[in-house]
Amino acid sequence: MTERTSCVVIGGGPAGMVTGLLLARAGVEVTVLEKHADFLRDFRGDTVHPSTLTLLDELGLGEKFHALPHSELHSAGFPQENGEMMKLADFTRLKVAHPYIAMVPQWDFLDLLAESARKEPTFVQRMETECTGLVREQGRVAGVTYRTSGETGEIRADLVIAADGRWSLARREAGLVPREYDCPFDVWWFRLSRGDAEAGNMLMPKMRDRRFAVPLPRPDFYQVAYLAPKGDDLRKQGIEAFRENVAQICPEFTDRVHELATMDDVKFLDVRLNLLRRWHVDGLLCLGDAAHAMSPIGGVGINLAVQDAVAAATLLAEPLRRGRPTEADLAKVRSRRLAPTLMVQGLQRLLHRTVVRGVMNGKRNGPPAPLIKAFARFPRLSYVPARLLGLGLRPEHAPAFARRAMEPVQR
Question: What are the E-state strand segments in 179-247?
Fold first, then answer.
């Protein structure tokens, strides 16, 4: 079966859902393909930064978002060997309505976007529908092929947007190859219970004896990122050794590491940090992780993907309403988003070299001394990482056609 629409978005993650919502609000026919049956997948990014919180207000979704169960992180820093804390990023210094990072399950965030998008008459959401390839016509991408419930089909479109993540099929089919940057670690994700009395609004990585862990507080449990040297297969060591490592680096979790029954309770993330030189070919545009996979340092992946989506919808809504966007139209998205992406990736690479690699090599159990001294002497420096991580170099705002009055929360 062959169908027709103006824009096909591959992937129902943050970049895909925001793109679909905004284009639909512009009156563009858009179909979002998501290969899973729902958004209930754990161990994905759960950080929603100030730039995205501002965007949700502009879209009229702020009250509904803040009604979701969530916690707030007001700063991020590193423990020092003397037991004191070096505050690297102080989000309260940002002059915005929501000067913090909201920790919320990504499935709730995506459900909120999908619920709003489905109210638009030009929006179509296709769950359990997997893109299997690209359709080409006269040298350009003209649509996608898909598989759903054992059936196959084809959707022709004026534009295909690849928002299908760091292992993007569409990117590979289009012949786009990212430049890979060195990344010294992989991440092993797991969750542990959180007591009612355990509070905290600061992100505090733990570093000790070549080990590195980042406990992220959700409302009723901790989602923990355990960083290990790239290539180390912790499954071979077994669950007992893993529990011991966690307890040594995070002694406060000693009483609950038994909650990890087997290594099946620990999810592996092959960390990538890369960037496409070109984000498009004729008829196809890559956004989010498909254009630039980010390190989990700073939790910025969701927010850069969302800002890519806003820029793309802002720049491409009118060309799509007229018909087929040109390659020049598509190139404008990369031009607008390249500098903010490079700036954040540059900060991540700096932290990889100066903090993570030093800990994993056994040289130190915290940031290097010059960095500690600089932030101790000039506390206002904490504004700079907060700005880069929380807002980005060029925060994107909702275009006029997508703005709505605040939607009330149904009690």
Answer: 179-180, 185-193, 202-203, 206-208, 211-217, 221-229
